[in-house]
User: Which sequence fits this backbone?
């Protein structure tokens, strides 16, 4: 769209120009008019025309004065001078103002359209150059972060070569002699949960949001550039940079910003974030050491302590006592034996005992937790493949069995870690049992024996129907024919008989007995006992002891 402003104090001249101009052919969609230079200046400010046709002799403000104003305030404006006077002063000002053309009155159609065409061609060339410049800047702005990321990664991997990257050094402040730099590593502990809940399972969107927060919380003197670790989706790498200052000052400020970022991410997205900081350095290539310190600080975070926002940042100076490493190898033989024999509860018991020993250790570092979780998944997958239960990854994991967040399921504390390990055992265990149970003949006594051994668990009939591929109705009918009572009634009988036995031990509290029987609520146990025997556990114990 091209807009033309015609400035002439004679209305018939303006009308003649309107009639003679090939406006449609030139792409002119808007024509404005002004009767003098002063009102024309107001129209310039209000409408921003692309081309101005100006008469040199006008009242209020003549063409010379108008062109001087334009030269000062609108140096890029295209002007065409129209004058009825062959005056040298007018011509000299027109040349000085770099007008697009100079026409003498009376203006003829050919000269007018030639001058307009020349101005429009200049305008189109400018716009094309401007569009190219904008596109170039957009491309550059989009590619610069990736280029910086590539440079930093080469530094962290210690493959950075200064000479071939000389032209890019200003991008990362490597050309500054007074710069200070340090690295940090942040892990979103509940990555998969937040990604599914807030970002439609798009990892890149979550990472983009985290990077924005890290940039926004930067201080005036401290810049933060962050990007996702390409090998581990739930971790973000941050490089803090400052011009000058002391190393201690940078470390202190970066620590504050990291804590602020952790709190902001928790408030905005419900993210549970842990972080590790490296030491400041003066040379950009030294960031490799700072990054390694930051990664080590993150890995040393003790999972046996709650990862609260205020405690989420582990500095390079932090030193946690490392707990004794408890490998899974010795326990896996027991777990494998239990699964092969179809005894998933026994496998759970072995795992629970192992996790209980880990909980008793002085420390259980985050890195150790990652290693044990990966080891457990690999061993279970190998067992499943060996027993013909399939080698494909579990639902919710990517290629090679890696979880969507990279490296395993979510866990932010030891309780969640226990849940993650138990869930792995359940999924692989059920897959193995579904494959192996079909090769053993079914006996209804298997159901009774299971109840007798694991009465304290939350036993559901669906466990047996899925394991033995029987309908619920048929299984319950078969059990009642064999033992005279239903499965639920038998489970109740076993629990109540065991309750009477335990109540005979005065050292055991009612609450403890309730938990030993699988009742998580003491009141519910007492109600069930009263309904079964007609008196409360306390009354039964009193009567039993008196007797």
Assistant:
């Amino acid at each position: 769209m091209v807009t033309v402003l015609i400035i002439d104090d004679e209305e018939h001249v303006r009308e003649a120009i309107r009639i003679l101009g090939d406006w449609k052919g030139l792409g002119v969609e808007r024509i404005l008019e002004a009767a003098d230079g002063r009102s024309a200046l107001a129209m310039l400010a209000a409408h921003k025309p692309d081309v101005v046709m100006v008469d040199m002799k006008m009242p209020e403000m003549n063409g010379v004065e108008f062109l001087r104003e334009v030269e000062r305030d609108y140096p890029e404006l295209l002007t065409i001078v129209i004058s009825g006077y062959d005056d040298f002063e007018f011509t000299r000002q027109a040349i000085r103002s770099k007008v697009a053309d100079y026409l003498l009155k009376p203006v003829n159609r050919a000269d007018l359209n030639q001058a307009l065409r020349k101005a429009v061609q200049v305008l189109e060339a400018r716009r094309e150059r401007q569009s190219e410049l904008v596109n170039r800047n957009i491309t550059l702005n989009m590619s610069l972060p990736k280029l910086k990321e590539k440079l930093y990664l080469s530094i962290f991997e210690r493959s950075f070569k200064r000479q071939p990257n000389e032209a890019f050094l200003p991008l990362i402040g490597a050309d500054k002699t007074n710069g200070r730099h340090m690295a940090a590593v942040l892990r979103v502990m509940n990555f998969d949960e937040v990604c599914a809940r807030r970002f439609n399972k798009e990892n890149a969107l979550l990472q983009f949001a985290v990077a924005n927060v890290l940039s926004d919380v930067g201080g005036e003197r401290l810049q933060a550039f962050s990007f996702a670790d390409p090998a581990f989706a739930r971790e973000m790498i941050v490089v803090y940079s400052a011009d000058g200052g002391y190393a201690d000052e940078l470390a202190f400020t970066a620590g504050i910003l990291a804590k602020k970022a952790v709190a902001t991410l928790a408030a905005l997205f419900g993210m549970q974030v842990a972080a590790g900081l490296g030491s400041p350095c003066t040379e950009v290539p030294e960031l490799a050491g700072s990054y390694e310190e930051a990664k080590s600080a993150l890995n040393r975070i003790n999972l046996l302590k709650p990862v609260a926002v205020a405690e989420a940042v582990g500095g390079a100076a932090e030193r946690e006592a490392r707990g004794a490493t408890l490998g899974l190898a010795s326990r896996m033989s027991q777990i494998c034996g239990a699964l092969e024999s179809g005894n998933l509860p026994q496998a759970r018991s072995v795992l629970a005992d192992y996790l209980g020993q880990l909980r008793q250790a002085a420390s259980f570092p985050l890195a150790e937790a990652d290693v044990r979780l990966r080891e457990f998944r690999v061993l279970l997958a190998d067992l499943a493949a060996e027993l013909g239960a399939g080698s494909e990854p579990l639902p919710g994991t990517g290629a090679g069995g890696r979880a969507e967040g990279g490296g395993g399921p979510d866990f932010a504390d030891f309780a969640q870690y226990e849940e993650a390990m138990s869930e792995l055992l359940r999924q692989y265990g059920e897959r193995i049992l579904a494959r192996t149970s079909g090769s053993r003949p079914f006996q209804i006594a298997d159901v009774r024996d299971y109840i007798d051994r694991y009465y304290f668990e939350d036993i559901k009939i669906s466990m047996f129907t899925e394991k033995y591929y029987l309908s619920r109705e048929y299984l319950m009918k078969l059990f009642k024919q064999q033992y005279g009572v239903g499965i639920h009634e038998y489970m109740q009988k076993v629990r109540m008989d065991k309750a009477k036995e335990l109540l005979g031990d005065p050292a055991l509290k009612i609450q403890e007995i309730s938990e030993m029987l699988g009742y998580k609520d003491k009141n519910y146990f007492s109600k069930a006992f009263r309904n079964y025997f007609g008196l409360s556990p306390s009354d039964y114990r009193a009567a039993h002891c008196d007797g």
Summary: The chain has a mean pLDDT of 82. The first helix runs from residue 11 to 20. The longest strand covers residues 179-188.
